[in-house]
Amino acid sequence: MPGAKTDRADAERLQHTFNRFVAKLDASLTPASLRDTMADVASMFGLRHIAYLALAPGRARRPNIIATYPQAWVEHYQKSRYHRLDPVVVSLAERRDPFSWEVERAVASPRLRQFYDEASFFGIRAGLTIPLYDADGPVAALTLATAAGLNELPPGLFSEENVLQLMAVLLHKRARERIAGPRIVDGVRLSRREYECLEWATAGKSATDIAVILGLAPSTVIDHLSRAKAKLGVRTIVQAVALFARTVAMQKPPQS
């Protein structure tokens, strides 16, 4: 029966997608590699953009974001503190199940209209968001987005919400491990912020870039990097980055 063959082919495709995601996630040891894994997931679903947003305690604090969005948009989003305005983020307080959304063209608030216009300019017009919760409420979200309208999202995307939820949970766990894990570099334990700043520096980000990503002042990022250098017993960020990269390489699972 043609229908049965189609269903079986879809199931096999989805299983292949999930297995590939898990394999790549296991090897993702830095924010940059997590971003690459996420980009691969987006392409598997026929989409260009995917974003992981981890909420910070307190509404005023900027969230951590790992995304395939244009870097200029991520930086602008963080600097403008759009997480306080973004309807998708605001909806996390009330919605636990995956939900779809689309940029609205007619809104009363000039600031919200500006937000929508800017998101559209960067090619973010519709998407599917998977909220992530713990006992205290929303903690993060994974969003698959498109530059086209809601009707242009892959038709099978909504029927695969259960798999997407599982992928979101695994991604969240991995991302949180990178933030709250042992934070050992070359046998030296770093603070969470020291480790985060050095991790992003290893991914090629400047102090200004890191400040935007983590919601910190550039001077604070420089302080964290300086303390990391002192703890590691090196004189330059380049040397600290080399130690971090070597530690990450040693943590990689052996190739079979």
The helix content, as a percent range, equals 40-55%
Extended strand count: 7
Main CATH class of the largest domain? Alpha Beta
Q: How far do the termini sit from each other?
A: 39 Å
Helix-strand pattern = HHEEHHEHEEHEEHHHH
Named at the architecture level, the CATH assignment of the largest domain is 2-Layer Sandwich
- Spatial shape: globular
The main sheet orders its strands as: 2-1-5-4-3
Percent range for β-strand residues = 5-15%
Number of helices: 10
Gyration radius from CA atoms, angstroms? 19 Å
Oligomer: single chain
Query: What is the residue-averaged pLDDT?
Result: 85
The CATH superfamily of the largest domain turns out to be: Transcription factor LuxR-like, autoinducer-binding domain
Class computed from helices, strands and strand pairing: alpha+beta
Quick one: biggest sheet?
5 strands, antiparallel
Low-confidence runs (pLDDT<50, min 5 residues)? none
CATH topology of the largest domain: Beta-Lactamase
How many distinct domains? 2
What is this structure, in a nutshell?
The chain is 52% helix and 14% strand. With 256 residues, it is of the alpha+beta class.
What characteristics describe this protein?
Beta-Lactamase; two-stranded antiparallel sheet; 7 strands; 10 helices; 2 domains; 256 residues; alpha+beta; five-stranded antiparallel beta sheet; single chain; Arc Repressor Mutant, subunit A
List the helices and strands and how they pair.
Elements (H helix, E strand, L loop, with lengths): L1 H25 L4 H14 L4 E6 L9 E4 L3 H9 L7 H5 L7 E4 L7 H12 L4 E9 L2 E10 L14 H20 L3 E2 L2 E2 L2 H11 L4 H8 L3 H15 L4 H15 L5
Antiparallel strand pairs: 1-2, 1-5, 3-4, 4-5, 6-7
Helix pairs in contact: 1-2, 1-6, 7-9, 7-10, 8-9, 9-10
